[in-house]
Amino acid sequence: MEVFPPEINKANCKKVLKDNQKKLLCKTREIFSEEIVNALDKCEKHVVLKFDKRLWFKYRLVISRELLEKFGVLEILTGIDYKVRKTISDSEQLNEHINSIKINFSISKN
User: Fold this and answer.
1) Considering the domain boundaries, does residue 60 fall inside one?
2) Fewest beta carbons within 10 Å, which of 9, 10, 65, 66?
């Protein structure tokens, strides 16, 4: 190869990366949905959903907000240099450095 092809440039690479992140966002929703259904099929009391390390933090927040809206309360594991686990019930409590989400399927005993 004598020169780089024209599509190898900053603008195109950014576009491809953004497109791939959106695909990864959709795939993450699909995977998390399957994990939730599988946990319910096995009568688990909770499910832990771990984000792919390649997914940008802004898209982790998107998914976290969606799940918070659906379940009302989430337990999240956050942190880069250290790990913090906390239960949240308001999207304002979400931290952008979310590594995983735990959803408890609490059912009243009647």
Assistant:
1) yes
2) 10
* Residue 28 identity: T
- Side-chain-side CA neighbours of 84 within 13 Å: the count stands at 13
Phi and psi at 46, nearest 5°, equal: -155, 170
**Does 58 reside within a domain?**
yes
Are 72 and 55 in contact, with CB atoms under 8 Å apart? Answer: no
Q: What per-residue string of b and e applies to 10-44 under the rule 16 or more CB within 10 Å gives b? A: eeeeeeeeeeeeeebbeebeeebeebbeebeeeee
Range of the domain at 98: 10-104
Encode pLDDT of 59-82 as tens digits.
999 999 999 999 999 999 887 666
Cα 110 → chain centroid: 33
Number of domains the chain is built from: 1
CA–CA distance, 86 with 101 (Å, rounded to integer): 10
